[in-house]
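Can't paste images in this forum, so I'm doing it all in text. The chain is below; anyone willing to post the predicted structure tokens underneath?
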Amino acid sequence: MRRLLSCSAPGLLILVVGLAWGQQRDQRAHEKSSAPAASHQSEVNRLFEDYDKNKDGFLQRDELPARLRHHFDQVDTNKDGKLSREEVQQGIVYMQPHRRPSDVVFVLIEMSDCDDGCCCELQQLYDVLRKLDKDKNGKIDPGALKAARQEILEDRVNGILKDLDTDQDGKISRQEARGRVKEHFDRLDANKDGFVDRDELMRAASEKLSGKKGQEGAHPADKAKDNK
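Text version of the structure:
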């Protein structure tokens, strides 16, 4: 893959979303299919040839490599703890290697020839993950992840205020507003005092994150670049 996504941050985002979407697409395709495709037969035969170690005509969980066990229970429709040829053929999509958004790391390492650029991207990922490892034990704590999420929101909101609050009074007037803040000023101005302050920006960004309704389309923290 030549010059993979130019090793840019937007490219990484597109790739991560693409990986996640691809997994969801494959699952939807499986759920919508009422009959196994003939083209899958050779793959089913190969799976049994490679992994049916006791040659009993079934695939046991421990016969499969870890990468093919992720959806064993979904494929085992009769719940007898083993997979028949019919079950594998019906659930062949689930037998594909499990793809995750985190695979972007392996893509950067393995499938790109822009080593200098990709090193920068990987270093940024590493620095963020190392910062999340508060206890320095090689693990990411959920509490640290939540705190980092809050810090990102605060940094974005502070950036918006820095860009738009030209008189530096700690709030954005209608005249100072630009981009999405201007477009959704009335929604953001929750207390209707004619200004958008830091708390109102944080509330909007937090509601966007939690999926709450009432501020739809009024969350400039996700579109800081639009405010410039």
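Residues 1-26, 29-36, 213-228 have pLDDT under 50 and may be disordered. The longest helix spans residues 9-32.
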